[in-house]
Sequence to fold (146 residues):
Amino acid sequence: MRIGNKGVSPLIATILLLLVAMGIGALVWGFMQEYTTEQTSTAQATASELATCSEGGIKITSCTYTASLQRVRIKVENTGKRDLNSFWVNVQYTDGNATQVKTDRNVLAGSFDYIDGNAQSTPSKVKIQSVQCSSIKDSVTSCPAG
Fold:
């Protein structure tokens, strides 16, 4: 004979189990909703940049270094169908140092322009990248003295 046994009735246990399961489900739902919203925003931004920049292209057609002026001159051709404004110019030197400069030059579609910059020493590599379209870039490893 059992005297004083107390426990949870099966009905109450079932209700508690359902409440715990619903609570865990709500936590997972909240996390997944936040995650999918973040991923959707990232995908939309990437797609927008790709669509905007898909018709752009640049090419370094020449590069000269003037040691007496410590200047590098880059001739940049816009090979695309989109005007490009502002570029990052990265210059790596033979001594291992590097500099990065932003220039607000505009290179119209189908045309070219010259971009001048300071150079501390002889450049070993020059890279140019569009500011608004980071996927549009070019580099050259020869920048002879001019």
Remarks:
- The longest helix spans residues 10-53.
- The chain is about 30% helix and 40% strand.
- The radius of gyration is 30 Å.
